[in-house]
Amino acid sequence: GIQVEQSPPDLILQEGANSTLRCNFSDSVNNLQWFHQNPWGQLINLFYIPSGTKQNGRLSATTVATERYSLLYISSSQTTDSGVYFCAVVGMDSNYQLIWGAGTKLIIKP
Amino acid sequence: KAGVTQTPRYLIKTRGQQVTLSCSPISGHRSVSWYQQTPGQGLQFLFEYFSETQRNKGNFPGRFSGRQFSNSRSEMNVSTLELGDSALYLCASSPGTVRETQYFGPGTRLLVL
Question: Least CA distance to B37: which residue of chain A?
Answer without folding.
Answer: A41
